[in-house]
Design a protein that fits this description.
38% helix, 17 strands, alpha/beta, globular, 2 domains, 9 helices, Carbamate kinase, 8-stranded mixed beta sheet
């Protein structure tokens, strides 16, 4: 693959601008905004694979499923992942198609419903920790634990929540398909929500599992698998900082893999926010990746021109 191939990971939260704008149409408008920045990259000669989060959207499907439980079957978590890959992929495809048309870019856009292989013996399955779905009272939580075998935890006095495993991605099942689409010049949307987690049974058949894969980890694995020249994590901040939100906050512009490891070990990046992003990039570079960038969507073009963002290099 060429050095002008980039994997760009877009957060699932980036489609929800605020609590008042959560409808499908609101999410589409937010998608249009994000895809303008992707179109800029493409106009500047990059071949792009867009990956995305799906946390809020899976939450909505699960909630809808809970509320209609008395009338309809519930939707298993792996199917929720597939549903959101299709729905978000459709939004991105439509937004990019319209953006390309405006700019006179002759390009096809395709979404690949992507499965991500995880190890059925991953220790994460022994200690589920990723909260999903809505809050419940204790009685409902205990019923779900008994009836459906859910793992439930009390969440900081706010109620009870279901938790699932977050295993590490091992292989992107549809890698070859994604690669062949890039080779024919398509812009690809893939690995939504980290991919649908699947395990292999003794016969080598794939089985969906109730788990959530970190989308930045899976995106980094995809970037390595197709030998992308650049891995971009598009998030809520323009740059990464040390001592974030403290009086001695320091913005990082360009750091090496060794420095990233050092800052990570010092605990600068919070588990729930910047930690997994920096960890994903560390793994990407350790596996032979050449460069990675963290910035917000509106600054991708400026960052690629070397004006902003946090670059992490070997």
């Amino acid at each position: 693959m060429t050095s002008k191939i980039a994997v760009v990971a877009v957060g699932g939260n980036s489609l929800i601008t605020d609590e008042k704008h959560r409808t499908v149409h609101d999410q589409y408008l937010a998608a249009c905004e994000s895809m303008k920045h992707i179109a800029n990259m493409i106009q500047n000669g990059w071949e792009v694979i867009v990956t995305h989060g799906n946390g809020p959207q899976v939450g909505f499907i699960l909630r809808r499923s809970e509320l209609s439980r008395h009338e309809l079957h519930e939707v298993p978590l792996d199917a929720c992942g597939a549903d959101t890959q299709g729905a978000i992929g459709y939004m991105f495809q439509k937004a990019l198609h319209n953006e390309f048309r405006k700019r006179g870019i002759k390009k096809e856009v395709a979404t690949v419903v992507t499965q991500t292989l995880v190890d059925k013996n991953d220790p994460a399955f022994q200690s589920p920790s990723k909260p999903i779905g809505s809050f419940m009272d204790e009685a409902t939580a205990q019923t779900q634990r008994t009836k459906d075998g859910w793992h439930v935890v009390e969440d900081a006095g706010r109620g009870w929540r279901r938790v699932v495993a977050s295993p590490l991605p091992k292989q992107i099942i549809e890698r070859a398909t994604i690669e062949s689409l890039i080779k024919v010049g398509a812009t690809v949307i893939a690995v939504g929500g980290g991919g649908i987690p699947v395990v292999e049974n003794e016969q080598g058949e794939l089985l969906g599992v109730e788990a959530v894969i970190d989308k930045d980890y899976a995106s980094a694995l995809l970037a390595n698998s197709i030998q992308a020249g650049l891995f971009v994590i598009s998030t809520a901040v323009e740059k990464v900082a040390l001592n974030y939100n403290k009086p001695d906050q320091k913005w990082l512009e360009r750091i090496t893999l060794a420095e990233a490891r050092h800052y990570m070990a010092e605990g600068h990046f919070a588990k729930g926010s910047m930690g997994p992003k920096v960890q994903a990039i560390i793994w990407f570079l350790e596996r032979g990746g050449s460069q990675a960038l963290i910035t917000n969507p509106e600054n991708i073009a400026r960052a690629l021109a070397g004006e902003t963002g946090t670059w992490i290099v070997p």
